[in-house]
Write a structure and sequence with these properties.
CATH class: Mainly Alpha
CATH superfamily: Heme oxygenase-like
CATH architecture: Up-down Bundle
Number of domains: 1
Strand content: under 5%
Order of helices and strands: HHHHHHHHHH
Shape: globular
Bound molecules: protoporphyrin IX containing FE
Helix content: 55-70%
Largest sheet: none
């Protein structure tokens, strides 16, 4: 490649819009056992072999809530300050904080668990996001996209497995609110895809690339939270 070729080259998915560009990069980072489009070698325990305890699952919910709360609070705060980038992403319907609060309260009130603090994995992700909000707000949108959309795809699959494994009998029976949205999540995702494409439509190529380049870190940080279950 000569000088300038990279910048002139079209990114995969670019013609369909920026969400498609982010999706292409994300799907490449899946392993073949996670998703059919996955390209990564299997390096982690396949989800069919995960055998976490109920306490591990509770920690996963607590850590997930710490990240969702962080995103939901900061996106709303930025929008309230007049940051137009984030205004479309307030109250999209994808918010997970309140659903997770109800699921965590169920562990405490119905099962008598004491609720743990968020682990260092969740706190480190918050810390990373906080500096990204300050230095590269467009790049936050890549984490936002991956964290919310992953949960509606692989996350729901994981939830079904966990419910079958740990929460299908007696007092432990539960269908978690984490996997329920106020309306058809497919419609919410379609609305949000349009908003992301609109938000990114005027970004220069280097800003888009910087955002796309966050995908690896979005996977790495999410992976540390999924490690609560992958055991
Ligand atoms: C989509 C599985 C982890 C981000 C998907 C899909 C599956 C899947 C089956 C649907 C593919 C399709 O549309 O046909 C999994 C499994 C995971 C995992 C089993 C872990 C065990 C992750 C992680 C991230 C992520 C860690 C990023 C943080 C995404 C995104 C999509 C997706 C952005 C596209 C969703 C959409 O287009 O609506 N995943 N995934 N996934 N995943 Fe994952």
């Amino acid at each position: 490649h000569g000088h300038g070729d990279g910048a002139a080259q079209r990114r995969p998915g670019e013609l369909k819009g920026f969400v498609q560009e982010m999706r292409v990069v994300a799907m490449r980072l899946h392993t073949k056992d996670q998703a059919r489009e996955g390209k990564m070698e299997e390096s982690v325990l396949p989800i069919q072999e995960w055998r976490p305890s109920r306490a591990d699952y509770l920690q996963f919910l607590v850590d997930s809530k710490a990240v969702y709360d962080y995103l939901e609070d900061h996106v709303a705060a930025e929008a309230a300050k007049g940051n137009a980038l984030f205004a479309p992403f307030v109250n999209t319907g994808l918010e997970r904080g309140p659903a997770l609060a109800a699921d965590i309260a169920w562990f405490r009130d119905e099962l008598g668990f004491s609720v743990p603090e968020p682990s260092s994995a969740a706190l480190q992700y918050q810390q990373y996001l906080s500096q990204l909000f300050a230095t590269s707000p467009e790049a936050v949108l890549c984490h936002w996209y991956n964290f919310y959309f992953a949960h509606t795809a692989g996350g729901r699959m994981i939830g079904r497995n966990m419910e079958n494994l740990l929460f299908s009998e007696g007092k432990y029976q539960r269908h978690f609110k984490f996997y329920e949205w106020d309306r058809d999540v497919k419609h919410i995702l379609d609305e949000v895809r349009v908003k992301i494409d609109e938000a990114a439509s005027a970004w220069p190529r280097d800003v888009k690339d910087k955002c796309l380049n966050e995908t690896g870190l979005a996977f790495a940080y999410s992976g540390t939270i999924l490690n609560n279950l992958a055991k």
